[in-house]
Amino acid sequence: MQPKDEDEFVDMLWTMANHTAGPIAIRYPRGAGTGAVPKATPKLLEIGKTEVVQHGRDVALFGLDNLFEIAQAAALKLEETGFCVALINPRWIKPIDTGTLEFFARSVEVVCTLEDHVLHNGFGCAVMEHLHSNQINTPVVRIGWPDQFIEHGSIPVLRKKHGLTAEALEEKVAPFLRKKSGNQSSVA
């Protein structure tokens, strides 16, 4: 499990405490959270089930963990240029929610994964592998860390340097999106 904010982290802790069917783990980033206030009573999360925040028909953004905020910012930018964006909080690396993934991959022009990990063998790779195995040929754009030593520094500076930003996402998905008629400022 990987929480998008402090409230979801508490739900994941509650889910972990009540899970008796085998091992379970939570991965969370260093540094401060988003500032989300946990609700009074945590809720159990369904194992392997994503949270679909909004539906869209042009691009599906799967923003894992703290990169969900970047997915939200990118969704706003893409919507300003006329695109209809699906925004999904995957929550789980394993098991992956194959039903939700397949639904969106069959309905959009491009899928984009965002993860606060090295891209090599990460969440985006699992998405691509599953889609390939099921002969779903929707392009997948991955946003994450390169497979190299990352120097120390402030998180915002390092994200900008290595392309983990809403602007970088917009640039990477643009070639896969068709211009919207009547919108002169379209991305693609």
Q: How would you describe what is shown here?
A:
This protein has 188 residues and is an alpha/beta fold. The chain has a domain at 51-176: 3-Layer(aba) Sandwich (Rossmann fold). It has six helices and five strands. The protein has helices at residues 6-17, 68-80, 98-107, 123-133, 155-161, 166-173, and strands at residues 51-54, 59-63, 85-89, 110-118, 140-145. The protein has a five-stranded mixed beta sheet with strand order 1-3-2-4-5, with helices on both faces. Helix 4 links the parallel strand 4 (110-118) and strand 5 (140-145). The longest helix is centred in the middle third of the chain and has 13 residues, at 68-80. It is globular. Mean pLDDT is 92; it is low at 181-188.
Task: Sum up the structure in keywords.
single chain; 188 residues; alpha/beta; Rossmann fold; five-stranded mixed beta sheet; 6 helices; 5 strands; 32% helix; 15% strand; globular; disordered C terminus
Summarize the structure.
The chain has helices at 6-17, 68-80, 98-107, 123-133, 155-161, 166-173; strands at residues 51-54, 59-63, 85-89, 110-118, 140-145.
Corresponding CATH architecture of the domain at 51-176: 3-Layer(aba) Sandwich
On the 0-100 scale, what is the average pLDDT? Answer: 92
Can you identify the CATH class of the domain at 51-176? Alpha Beta
Proportion of strand residues: 15-25%
> What structural class do helix, strand and pairing data support?
alpha/beta
User: What distance separates the N and C termini?
Assistant: 34 Å
Give a short account of the largest sheet.
5 strands, mixed
